[in-house]
Amino acid sequence: MEDRAILSAIKNDRMVECDFIESERSCRRTRRMDEYYDILGQGIKLGIIVPESYVGKERFRMRRIKGEGRLLIMGYDNKQNGLLA
Description:
By secondary structure, the protein is of the alpha/beta class. It has one domain. Helix content is 25%, strand content 39%. A 5-stranded mixed β-sheet has the order 1-2-3-4-5. The longest helix is centred in the middle third of the chain and has 10 residues, at 32-41. It is globular and about 40 Å long.
């Protein structure tokens, strides 16, 4: 549908972490930022995994998020069969 995957970690019937694996196509959709802020607003740890070329943009967009361990942004090299960079 949107070329993305969403992984959720549940502990004691409560979501504690949500990771979004985005493609270049899904990175161009601005509404995903609303989803990210919704997850963070619920006190859930957020992981964003994007193509390496988008890591700087994601970090800039999410720069206002404070607090150790609330947010993790990683990149992958989609020219290397999807291996994390």
